[in-house]
Ectoine/hydroxyectoine ABC transporter ATP-binding protein EhuA (Oceanobacillus kimchii), 255 residues
Amino acid sequence: MTEPIVKFQNIHKSFGDVEVLKGINLDIHPAEKVAVIGPSGSGKTTIIRMLMTLEEPTDGDIIVAGRNLWKMEKKGKTVPANENHLREIRGDIGMVFQHFNLFPHMTILENCMTAPINVKKEPKEEVKKRSIEMLERVGLGDKVDNYPSQLSGGQKQRVAMARALVMRPKIMLFDEVTSALDPELVGEVLNVIRDIAKNDDMAMILVTHEMDFALDIADKVLFLDEGIIAEQGTASEVIEHSENDRLQEFLHRFR
Ligand code: ADP
């Protein structure tokens, strides 16, 4: 078995007096597609935000591609990570949010090009070529010069995906990317994610309430409940065959 690309080692997270994650242990392997399901408030987004370095665990270690996210070695000692260390790890991680966070004053092509050029300092022509390829891949090759305001919600979400893919991340995070969309736009976005999941070898972590979608694409499903991984296994084991009462109750609300 290859080394995990992401490891959570006994992760605890509290906000004030409230402990929202109570000891999460998790290995995600390269190319693995992991769906995270669970009731509202169970800690799903906190897991994603920790990987994005937006929240620091109260206790435990997160290892990404062999590097400890929050700690680094300096002169033989372990010290808190500095901004350079965090930035390097962030380069391996792409994210698509519930709200698209596109820059309104830039065309969709410019939206895709800005991070590789300005953050990764890559050559403009190469980034442009790759951005166009990715926009074609998400079905927006004819919209490269449009502005976000000229697109539907589903199209904006597809731009957000192309923008993340242009960075060539090793890990892609999707946090309830369809929950802010009108129902008729959900399918087109799920189809693009499905295409990425089936054809790309990056690891993917998806927080989703779309159970049929999770069954279709996930190698592994985690049921998060009250801050612990209450159930995990293949999609079929967790979604179709688990006897966990809390999970059953949760699934009844979504199926
Ligand atoms: P989920 O994504 O499963 O709905 P979250 O990870 O968003 O759950 O939140 C888990 C719990 O942590 C919730 O009770 C939420 O109110 C709380 N929480 C999340 N972020 C913060 C924060 N920045 N400050 C205080 N409480 C927070």
About this structure: The two ends are 34 Å apart (CA to CA). DSSP finds nine helices and twelve strands in the chain. The pocket of adenosine-5'-diphosphate is lined by residues 15, 20, 38, 40-46 (CB under 6 Å). The first strand starts at residue 6 and ends at 15.
